[in-house]
Amino acid sequence: MNTKKENKNAYKQMKFRTGIYYIKNIKNNKLFLKISTDLDRAFNSDQFQLKLGSHRNNDLQSDWNTFGSDNFEFGIFDELKSKETTTEIEIKKDLNDLLELHKVELHKKGIMLY
Known about the structure:
This protein starts with a helix and ends in a 6-residue tail after the last helix. Helix content is 45%, strand content 20%. A three-stranded antiparallel sheet has the order 2-1-3. It has a single domain, classed as GIY-YIG endonuclease (3-Layer(aba) Sandwich). By secondary structure, the chain is α+β, with helices and mostly antiparallel strands.
């Protein structure tokens, strides 16, 4: 039987898929992009906040309220591959850099973002 401390250390050693996920309004093709260090569970918080009516992005929340949840899709936009030795700080910096790069490219293509 593992102790609480052993379980905590084991969890810290786990590697999760990291990257950028999106919430897309399929009525107007507007995108909400966000980074995550755990893509497999990335949508849970945002989806919960939207259903509750308390998402921090007011425009996204307003559209969610107007169009309804059936008019939104959640997905993975880009996944970051990193080395085993990459620190959490480096991963977050890389994710933020990647997010900014994508935002610039999407803006050039005329895609609206929340």
